[in-house]
Amino acid sequence: MDPNEREGWTKIVTAEDIDYHMDEIGQAETNAHLVAEMFGEFPLDKWSRLLVPGCGTGQMFDYIRPADIGNLEFTFTDLNPRFLLKLRERIPRYMCTNYIIADDIDKYLSELLAMASGSDSNLLVLYDGETPIGYIGLRYFESPLGNQRIANENYLYVLPEKRGLASMRLIRNAKFLAKHKGCSHLILNASNLASELHDKVCRVYEKMGLVKFETSFIVELKESRGVSSDVSAEVLKARV
Question: What is the pTM of this model?
Fold first, then answer.
């Protein structure tokens, strides 16, 4: 993207500007009708995944009915994080377990790549056969409170239809990897998740022995038998 155009969308145009413009010309309501018409004409399978780049403030969700979109998973992305804050307020409750918000998809992907090749991080990918179904990113840092190394989760994602046992498998592999990297504790985060998904994830963390600490969960890493991780690869692989 042209640097001037990026600056315009991230520093000059506000969320209020977008909302006013979309409301003034009736674009949000039109978009909602077009989406309903498209899904009616081309129905998608349950848990199909849709990427919505340049999603803006999501004003069309003021006009979308639950029946119009069904059980789909959306990934919303926009260059302007203030647009996404407005979107998060708007997304109807029936979608609260079916969406991901990435504030800048280019930045998101570059950070994942950096984690895969960094000296103080790893990206662990969970596979079902030859198909990747989830990943977790770990960054390592020295604790300011003592002579300990800590692993902190930065990204955690599992396909909706594979969540549950696969999520637990991924976390077990992450614990083993962090221990292999000389860490004494692992921190997992849940504060940025949608409400119902947040509650489900918190229950999984507690079931796996993690202790809640403010908006995160922490567990001491003890000696355990190995799990199926290739700890020599830059992008590490685990199997379900």
Answer: 0.62
